[in-house]
Amino acid sequence: MDIINILLVDDHEIVRAGYHRLLENAEDIKIIAEASSGEVAYRTYVKLQPDVVVMDLSMPGIGGLEAARKIRKYDHEAKILVFSVHENETFLNRTLEAGVLGYITKRSAAKVMITAVRAVAKKQQFIGQEMQSFLVKSDNNLFEQLSPREFEIFLLLAEGKSVNEIADILILSSKTVGHHYTNLKKKLKISNAAEIIRLAIGKGFIKV
Questions:
Q1: Residues 75-130: pLDDT tens digits?
Q2: Cα(143)–Cα(147) distance, rounded to whole angstroms?
Q3: Is 208 domain-assigned?
Q4: What pTM, to 2 d.p., does this model score?
Q5: Nearest-angstrom CA–CA distance, 9 and 38
Q6: Cα(144)–Cα(99) distance, rounded to whole angstroms?
Q7: What span, in angstroms and rounded, lies between the C-alpha atoms of 55 and 128?
Q8: Is residue 28 located within the same domain as residue 129?
Q9: Structural domain that includes position 164
């Protein structure tokens, strides 16, 4: 029997502990490391080369989406399963664009995570039932026009981060972040950070 070595990533220790117990109940799954942020997840992946990364999307710092993008840039064969509270088309599309193989919601993670891990380990796509209806792309999704970097900056702005803070998180210059900020405001037809926050809340990208 082949053992699937897992890197488990979530910023909440209690959540990680719950999923750790769940996954290791399966005799073919072993947690070889845990991480509490996207930055640590990337460094741990480079060091240990796990078979599958099981990762939350919403975390401090670069977050799960950017971490997935970095891991896939380092290793195009990396197999990633994300689990998230976000049940919307934009997050699903963005993760698939980043090369993520699996997307399940926290609402059903306890029921399907083991099945999802086994599928992703075999390089098979696994999309949770709640997300199936979003697999056909909408033609009028407002956020499809944003580049991956613009979308990542949008999410950080929605969390109340400043341009300088975002530059530090993403290891970019403030000028570059400012340029992306200007572009995304034009594309979304908004004028300031307050409108970004309202839009993100309205679309369910952040919780209040």
A1: 999 999 999 888 888 888 889 888 999 999 988 888 999 999 999 999 999 998 88
A2: 9
A3: no
A4: 0.73
A5: 8
A6: 16
A7: 15
A8: yes
A9: 142-202
